Structure formats: C-alpha cells, structure tokens
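Deliverable D5.2: sample structural annotation.
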Amino acid sequence: MKKKVVGKSKGVVKGAPSGFVVSLLVHAAALMLAGLLVVFTVSQKEEQKFEPPAPVERPKMKLKKPKVKVKKSAKPKPTTRIVTKVQKATMPDIQLPEMSGMADGMVRGIEGFDLVVDLGDANVFGAAKSIGNDFEGEVYSLLHDRRGGTMSMDGDQFREILRKYVLSGWKSSVLSRFYRSPEKRYATNIMVPPIPTALAPGVFGVPELEDYYLFIKYEGKLVHKTDIKFRFWGIGDAYIFVNVDGKEVLLSAWNAHYSYFDWWSSSASGDRTHILGNQRMVGGDWIELKAGQPLDMKVLFGEWHGGQVSGMLLVEVEGVEYPRNSRGAPLYPVFKTEELTWDSITEISRFLTDNQCSLTTGPVFNDFYEPPSPDSETNLVAEAETPVAPQPEPKVEESPIRLWKFKDGKDVEAELMTVMGNQVVLKNARGKQVKVPIDSLTEEDLSYIWLSTPPTLDINFEKTTQVRQFGDTQSGSAPPVRGNFMTFSTQIEQTSSLPYGFGLQAEFFAIGSEIGGNKRMLLDYQKSDFTLVKAKKFKHSFKGSKVELIDYTLNGERKGKKYDTFLVVVTDSRGKIIAYKTPSETLYENLDKLRNIKVGWYFDRDVNRCLPTPPQEYSSPGQN
C-alpha cells in the first residue's frame, strides 16, 4: 500500500488550511455587510427623526413717518418756508471742525458748574429752536480767530472790518477768519433793549467771551401776506445796520462813531427826535413788499468797548396814524414775524422803558398770518398788555361725615374724632360721640383712619449759592455784572412715632423778587413722591435745578433778581395737605394760583401774573 504523503500546500494563509481561511473570509464579509446595513439603517432612522427647529419670531419695528408739529395758525406757502438756512451753501460753516479747541477756553464754565444766563429760553435774542419764519442769529467776536485763538484788535481795526463787510455786500468771506458762536438763536423780532453786553455771549453758548469787539448778526426772509409799504425805525448800541434785498435801509451808530459809517443817511421826518431805549430813533428808507414775495434781510448790531448792547427795530406803515406817548412820540409797533408771546413781552419789558413802543399791535411779517378774532385770547392780551394767569376752579370741600361699615354688617354715618388705643371715637350727625373697637371696622375704614392721622413732619428748606462776577469791558467804566448761582433743596423728616406706610408728595416753590421793583417771580418749582420708611430713617430730601440770578446796573439804576422766600407743601395720596412751611402766609393762602404760575413768570402780591417793573427812562439818551 502506497503511503499518502502530506506535503506543504499553497494555502491562502500560511499554516492554515485554505478551506478554513476561505470560511473565515466569507464570515467576515458577511459580518461587515451586516454592520454596514445596521449603520446605514440607524443613520437613516436618525435622519428621519430629525425635525428642524421652529423659526424664531423676531420683534419687528413698525416704521412710521416722522410727524412735524405745525402751529395751527401757521399755513406757510413753499416760498415763505425759506429761511436763512438755505444760504449756507454760499457761506460754509467752517467752524465746526475747530470747536474742540475751544473746550479749555471760552466754554469751560466756572468751577464745574454751567453758566446759563438768566434771560429765559425765549429771551430778547430769540429762542433755541426755529419755527421756520424767524431770523437766525449768531455772535461774532473779532478778538478771536475761528478756532478761538486770540487776535490783535483795536477800535479802528474793528470799525474798518465792519465797514468793509457791509460795503462788500455783506460777503461772508470778510468775516470767515473770525470766531462765531457754536449756538444760534432764532428770533421772531429784533427787539434787544439796552442790556449789559456781558449777558449776550452766554445766551449763544460762550459765556467766557469778552464783551467788546463783538456783534450779533441775524439773517432771514422779509415777507408779508399782502402788499405793504413801510419803513423801519430803530437804534443800535453802539451801531445797527439793516440790509433788505441787497440795499442798506437803515444805519444807526452811537454819537461820534456815526461819522465813521457815512455811506447812508436818513431822510425821514422826525429822524433822531424820539427816544427808544438809551438813544434817539433813526428813520429808515421806505420798503415796498409785494404779497407773498420774500426778500433777503440782514441785521447786524453790537458793541466795541463793552458796557451795554442794544438793537431794536420798530415799524411805521405808510398812511397809518399811531397813538403818541406823553412826550409826543409815536408808539410804533415792534417789527415781528409772529405775535409776541407773553414770555417774550415779559423779557422785553424787563429791560425796556415803559410806553416807548407797542408790543402787541402792528403788522406781522409772514405770508400766512391772520389777525385774531375780537374775542380771541391773543386780542385780549393786545388790549390789556398785562397777561393774567388762569384762575383755578374752586374746590369743593369734602364732608368729614362718612359712612362707616362694621364687620357684623351694621353701618353708621359719623365723623372721625380721634384714635384712643385700640378704640376709635366717632361723632354722629346728632353730635353724639361713641367709641368702637378698631378691630370691628372693615379694611376700608382702617385705611381711612390711618390716612386721617398723618405723621408729624419737620420741614427744612435750604439754598446753596455760588457767585460769579463778570463784565470784561475794555474801558472798565461799566459796572460789573454779578451772577448768583443758586440751588434749592428741601428735607422732610417724620418726628412722630406712629408708623405711616402711605405715599406722600412734596412740592417746593422758590420765590424771587425784583431788584429795583416790587414784583415777585417763580425761580424754581419741584415735586417729589415718596414714602417715609425706616430704612431711610423716615427722611426724604430732593433738590431743584441750578438757577442764575443776575444783578446789574444800567442808567445808574440797580436791577435784576434776588431770592426772596419759599413754600413747601406736603400732600397725602388723596391730595389733602398734611403739612406746609413758608415765611409768607400769603403764598400758602394763594396756593391754587401759585400752582398755575410757571417758572420765570412774574406775579404780584396777590399771586396774579403780571409784567416786570420796567427800568426808568434815560435822562440823557445818546445822540445818533
């Protein structure tokens, strides 16, 4: 028998039979395929389960067209809405990039507090915002370049620059290198009575600006609703120039300086005869306006050696007879593009001698003005020339007798007399007093009891004062202006021990009075809601805004404002007064009237709104 020899085979894997290896490979392939199927299946399942997140609802802003409030009386036509802003293309504002250089100079303020000249917002130089038919004004100083740096200047140079500017046709390039104020004012009249020049720069945002070698320039449109022929009458301290449609129509200069500005002279009958402010008026040339056709108008007035500044324009309409004052001077109306408000009349009356012109009559130079009806509020002001604050409605006193309800369902009409321990003493309509336990009353009655037994309060009113003296005149002859910067505050402290958890409201009225007059004015008013709690030691305090009171001398007369007195009132949540403090009982007796007086308003001893006491007439007015 032949032996079977087992030799080395050429298997797939060394040392393993080929069949076995093939079997392994087949099984491995099967496992791999199964795994892929599992992974594939899982992946497919996961993908099927995936749900995208719901879109996020983002809030959307509803855009609205901006609404511009227009005065009801104003119905402007496209032509009359053109104001001096449209001329900026020919006079680039080259100051804006350099204003940062002024921060450490003219506009730095005094010891960390702001300087806000006490002339009111709608003051004699105009308001802070334009209403469209006004004149845009700004201050120029020829002592500084446009970046605020100091420049060499004397009287002859100053007058020569003014002369060159006006004779050039008021070209802006003549003034381009000089400093202009960062803020503008928008005037509906040119009516700046004689005031300390030192007050003017602060109104235009530059209180540190010197009060000499400066002027104020206004530009706007002159237009009237109907055809009109008129002329200006005016004065300027130390000068005023008026240009309409490219032509000079009025020029006034103080005394000897008049000969220097010799390119225009008046032909008006009565020229330099009648007094306005501190000078005699100059009559201008006749001007003819066609209905609704605006003409460019520019006005410039200012000061060269300090002291006081003034610029005023009145209007004489051809063919109109005007009433006359005791000196025989015609009472011409103020030039205006809007009827003067009570606030404007108040500010002008502070500095203008009485009965020298009319503040409430005459034409209004816009092309949409309609005269007020005979029974309108404006017309009443025009007749009286003394605005009166609206009178409050009489209050109906609440009866002390009320309906008391008990937890057992019974009730009784009675008056609360007092609380004694855990009992309440009530007095019924027949006058009989009864005691009832406190815990027998409803929650409403308990609240009434605690409101009716307010805490005892200690009230203190304080003021802090900072003083600044200014008036950097070149000549040194003008008396300095004193500014008293005051901040008023009040503190209220509970001195009784019984807790009081209801809300209270406190009001304070800071009252000033005239220097050289007998009127009062509201300097500041503040109110504050509070609750007296242990965490604040049962105290509450609050303060008001900084108030600047100016003390000055004009025409040898001391004028201005000073602090006088105060009134603090505390009311509960029902509006009932529970405490007050004042050195002047008249103020408390007229509290309802006082609450109708706004900050800045003048009022008499009976708390009726009135105009300020005007300055006395100049005994030796300047000769133009």
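Annotation notes: The domain at 78-384 is CATH 2.60.120.380 (Jelly Rolls). Residues 23 and 29 are 10 Å apart (CA to CA).
The annotation will be released with the project's public dataset once the embargo ends.
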